[in-house]
UniProtKB/TrEMBL annotation:
Superkingdom in the source lineage: Eukaryota
Coiled-coil ranges per UniProt: none
Family matches, as PANTHER family: DELETED IN MALIGNANT BRAIN TUMORS 1 PROTEIN-RELATED (PTHR48071:SF18), SRCR DOMAIN-CONTAINING PROTEIN (PTHR48071)
Gene3D superfamilies xref list: SRCR-like domain
Signal peptide limits: none
Disulfide linkage: C13-C23
Pfam families on file: SRCR (PF00530)
Record bears the keyword Ion transport: no
All residue ranges annotated as the SRCR domain in the record: 1-44
Keywords (A to Z) from UniProt: Disulfide bond
Gene Ontology cellular component terms for the protein in this record: membrane
Annotated TM spans: none
Name recorded for this polypeptide: Deleted in malignant brain tumors 1 protein
Length: 49
């Protein structure tokens, strides 16, 4: 479980976005969820497997 502010909820990505924030979402800090529903993302530089 995470802690702190929740920035994105209901994120819908097509796969063509360059940044997570470019995906469709309800708005920054607009949410109806809790930390027990958290998901995480690890990012790496392009070109790495």
């Amino acid at each position: 479980m995470g802690r702190g502010p929740i920035f994105l909820d209901d994120v819908d990505c097509s796969g063509d976005e360059e940044r997570l924030i470019d995906c469709e979402h309800n708005g920054i800090s607009v949410h109806d969820c809790y930390h027990y529903q958290d998901a995480g993302v690890y990012c790496s530089p392009r070109g790495l497997p």
